[in-house]
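Residues determine shape. Take a concrete instance:
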Amino acid sequence: MSDSLDTVPQPFTIDVSSETLDWITQRVNSARIVADVAHPQGKEWTDGVPSSTMNALVDHWKSDYDWRAVETRLNSTFRMFTLPIAEGSETINLHFVHHRSERPGAIPLIFAHGWPGNFTEVESLLSLTAPDDPKQQAFHIVAPTLPGFVFSSAPQSSGFGITQIASVYHQLMLKLGYTRYVGQGGDWGSLVLRAMALAHPGSCIGILLNFVIALPPTPTKNPVTLMWLALRWFTPDEKKKLSRMQWWSKNESGYSKIQGTKPQTISFGLADSPIGMMAWIREKLEILVEPDYVWDKDMVITWTMLYLLSGSAFSARIYKDAVTNIKEEVLQKKISSAVAFGASCFPLDIAYVPKWWAKATVADNIVFWKEHAKGGHFPSIECGELLKGDILAFIDTFSEEKRQLLNPKYEAPQPAIV
């Protein structure tokens, strides 16, 4: 890393310019919502976001949504920073949340988000820095924003994939003084954490994922597991979750094909249209949670705003750049026994393999595996208490020796980040 780079995290405050806000407001006020066709009851989302849903969101944006109030709340809720981190020929000015616990023995935990999420998903986990029960394990929480998403700068060249992002995140943890840490994440974040565990098992010593994908077992390494797979020896619950994953791939993954082939083209439309961006995001939110979960209109608009403010195509480009080598760099490799592996499996997520499959192809040291009865792709949003419980149960599996590895004397880069 170049000595010229500032290695001290700089406090970050969200302050959108009036010019940008005026442009977004003008586009929202002049929005034209395309009329939908009639659908049978229960099939309203078959072709995408219904016009009725978009009209309600646009009306709310026009009359009730207050970005400045949201901006104030975000700035008061999250302690945010930026730090330039070099990776190869790139330098990413990484945006991240960092909440340090004052409790002795607190464990560093990095929370890794994906698409169409963002750093605000970590909010429900911030209470882990100061649990009500003084005997409960406390955590230092770090939540970086993916490069090119929201307030993190984007790579300037193509080919910036999962291993590069993992290196940036690992460097961040080291620069914050955390030589050993654990991670939690889903979606793209789960793959980044797997890459971190593969490349840095001495530092990233435990990961808890809520999104587990795997390649099929091989006949040379996993003949018995491959036989189980070939014979479809699945429980009813496993069949249901695997069927949902297959359904998603066949019927709901068109967005990833578009973003994964022509990310620049789709980004022109999304970045220039607040309503287009909101529809693109809102459609996926609908079927990634329980049917009785109601997405708050302010949250949907705020997530849209955060993607608009990035000014980057990387939230689409990641589907091309990260996929190119993901099989060779992550999926074909097995996480060693030095890293504790855990899984929180939610029935309405869209990536899943049974534990016996994961034992064969994902990780050697599976210490925690929880099959939940409810929940989807955004557990920190939809069922934060369940996810927090899983994090604590995951850590409870650690030996005393492993826990001690996570609690070296902390040396802060400067008082500003404490």
Q: What stands out?
A: The chain has a mean pLDDT of 92. DSSP finds 17 helices and nine strands in the chain. Residues 236-251 form the longest helix (16 residues). Residues 207 and 271 are 33 Å apart (CA to CA).
